[in-house]
Design brief:
Blueprint lengths: L8 E5 L6 H16 L1 H25 L6 H43 L5 H42 L6 H43 L1 E5 L1
Antiparallel strand pairs: 1-2
Length: 213
C-alpha cells in the first residue's frame, strides 16, 4: 500500500516578511510536514512487510494437509509479520496525529489573516488537509480491521478441522477489507496532491518562492 506524503520543500522568502499570522501559518504548516517524516518511513516498512506476508500466504496456499507441519510453521511466521505490521501501523498513526495537532495551530493562524487572497488560499489548503486527515483515519481503521482478519485467517490455517468453505469465507473477508484500503488510499493520495498544490499557491501568494527538493 503506497500512499501520498507531503512534498519536501525548500522555502526562500522573497520580498517583505508579511503579516505575523502569515509567518505563523507558514511555520505551523512546515512543522506539520516535518511531523510526517516518521509516517513516510513507516510506509516503507509496511510495504516491505506486506510483500513478505504475500509470499508467506502464497507458500501456504500451495500446500495441503500432508504438509501440515509446514503450514503451521509458515502460518506462525505470517502471524509474526502481522504483529510487526501492527507495531509499525501504530507508529505511522502517531506521526499523523502529531501532524494533525500542528495543523490545528496553522488553522488558528489562518483565522487572523486579513489579506483576502491569502485567506482564501489558506482556507482552500485547510479544506484539503482536513479531508486528507479524514481519509487517513478511515484507512487506518480499515487497515487495523484487515490485520485482525489476517490473524484469524492464519489461525484457521493451523486448524486441522478447517473446512474449505470456512477458509474461502475468511479469504473473501480479507480481500474485501484490502479493497477498501486501496479505495481509501486513493482518496488520501488525491487529497495529498490537492493539498500540496494548494499550499504551493498559498506560499506563492504570501510572497514565498517555493523550490521543491
Amino acid at each position: 500500500m503506497k500512499i501520498g506524503a507531503f512534498c519536501a520543500m525548500a522555502l526562500i522568502l522573497t520580498g517583505c516578511m508579511g503579516q505575523d499570522p502569515v509567518d505563523s501559518l507558514h511555520h505551523s504548516l512546515e512543522k506539520a510536514a516535518e511531523s510526517e517524516k516518521p509516517f513516510q518511513e513507516e510506509q516503507k516498512t509496511l510495504k516491505e512487510l506486506e510483500a513478505k506476508e504475500n509470499q508467506l500466504y502464497d507458500s501456504v496456499m500451495k500446500l495441503n494437509m500432508d504438509d501440515y507441519k509446514k503450514i503451521v510453521a509458515l502460518s506462525n511466521k505470517a502471524l509474526e509479520n502481522v504483529s510487526k505490521r501492527e507495531e509499525h501501523l501504530k507508529l505511522e498513526n502517531d506521526s499523523m496525529k502529531k501532524s494533525e495537532t500542528e495543523f490545528e495551530e496553522a488553522k488558528t493562524s489562518a483565522e487572523h489573516i486579513k489579506e483576502k487572497d491569502i485567506k482564501e488560499k489558506a482556507d482552500a489548503a485547510a479544506n484539503h488537509m482536513e479531508k486528507r486527515y479524514t481519509s487517513y483515519g478511515t484507512m487506518y481503521k480499515e487497515y487495523k480491521k484487515a490485520l485482525e482478519l489476517n490473524k484469524k485467517l492464519y489461525m484457521q490455517l493451523k486448524d486441522k478441522d478447517l473446512t474449505r468453505d470456512d477458509l474461502d469465507q475468511q479469504i473473501d473477508k480479507v480481500n474485501a477489507s484490502y479493497e477498501k484500503i486501496l479505495k481509501y488510499s486513493g482518496e488520501f493520495n488525491e487529497q495529498t496532491e490537492k493539498y500540496n498544490k494548494a499550499r504551493e499557491d498559498l506560499y506563492d501568494a504570501a510572497g514565498y518562492r517555493v523550490k521543491k527538493s
